[in-house]
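User: Structure tokens for both sequences below?

Assistant:
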Amino acid sequence: YDRLIWAKDYKKIVIYGASGSLYGWDCEKLNEAFGDEYVIINLGMNANMNASIVFEGITPFLNDDDILLWACEPGNKVLGDTRFDYLQTWWYTGAYLDLYKNIDISNYQNLFECLAEYNKQKTRNHTSYKFADVTRENIYGDNIKERPNSYYACGQYRFDYFTGFDYSYMSSLIDKLNAKGVKVLFTYATYVEDEVDDSELEFYKEKLLENFDITIISDYKKCRYPITYFWNSEWHLTNEGSTLRTLQVIEDLKNYFNEVN
């Protein structure tokens, strides 16, 4: 967030996703590819963080021709559900309350109930929600701790997050970004190869485009990797896996730039 504020008047590529982005990008590679033109920022957080809060809160800092690269895992919170059911949003934004001056809180449910619980846990010095170790993050926002392969289970993937959830407010936020000239691009999270069928990802793609005015720049078939590139879950990549994923998305971005130019 501090880097985003600093870079307000520069062209930016801002990545937003859950922990698969926190533990899934090598932004130094992105900087090597696009740093002459764009400031690179990784806002990877947590799957129970309300993405709509982030999109709305950072809109004033995004300008014409900036890129918001949405790289989320499937899930109702990272897709923009406005209900506060978990404390993660407060744990990640509690030090940046000025973010909320950009947010119409009337569009969110249980926000203050979660804030009250967040403050209770703070007074008890509760630490279970402190997911990110900021001492191990680089200037872009990547977590750069050593992440050897230690994940051997099958991925537990779900894509049925479109029935019973209302993403109309998130859609309106994306429309506002588009109206500002911000390019809202989507790339898939990474999946363990052979654990997700094409039919599931086709369904996911269809629903994304049905709900949001976004440009999908990646082929989901290229977002599946051997399990040896996963660190400690079906979403978190090893350091090597993060670099491979980043190099693939660099190619996707270059293809996008060539098409629009």
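Moving on to the next sequence.
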Amino acid sequence: GDDYSRSPYMKANDDMGTSLMTMSTLPHTISHTSSPILVHALGLRSDLNRAEKDDPIVKAMSSVRAVEHGNSWSDGGKDQWYDFAEGYLKQNYARIVAVGRLGHVAQQAIHGTPEPRLGYGRAEERELRDIRSDATRTVWPAREQTNCEKAISYLPRLAEIYKDHPLGRQLQELSDTYSSGTALYQSLCDETSEFLILLQRIGAVTNCSIHGGPLSTRACQSVGRFAFDLGHQTINAVIDAILDESEITDYMVALSDSTIN
């Protein structure tokens, strides 16, 4: 690979150094003795990572365990785990999915090369290079990152450039989604509906696993990725609250306050 050890130091690209300096200015100290919940949360995150390589049932059970702990740390476990997930995590999940999809597709389009087609030539190639230059930035260690906010403005043109490419349909769908506030709102509402469907499936899988009901491989596989993401979303929120020196309950409430519907 490339050797960056001889590259000149540039503070603007030193994300790690900036993070360390920011942490050193925190008005409070975090340690394993001052925050036993942090230690437990990190352990749950490790369990989730190990479960990713296991079967979907283990993923679902590990996810529910993480959400149950988040529920307990937040409001003492007054709600059922699925009510807690719906109340505090649904909207944030929709935003995470929306931004993730935009970043993934835009990254491929901006840094890729469309297949040759009639009408595609040097002008489009130069335009794509200009888009790439404007919509990306270099982060440590010498890695290009797409600026999603800028990428939105280029979606219509990217959809045209990639018209006959497999990415073309995805780019057009994203362009339509971000064409207006109403369209974006509807897309986020669709994601929250999908969240509820997948949440119910996790509940069904875990109930069958606990009580010995019938389980199909396909049903388990349909929730594996969602379960992994949901568990991490819960634990990450708990860790962020601790690092921010906020009450976990208050942090969860703030997380869900920016409502979609």
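User: Anything stand out in the second?

Assistant: The first helix runs from residue 15 to 24.
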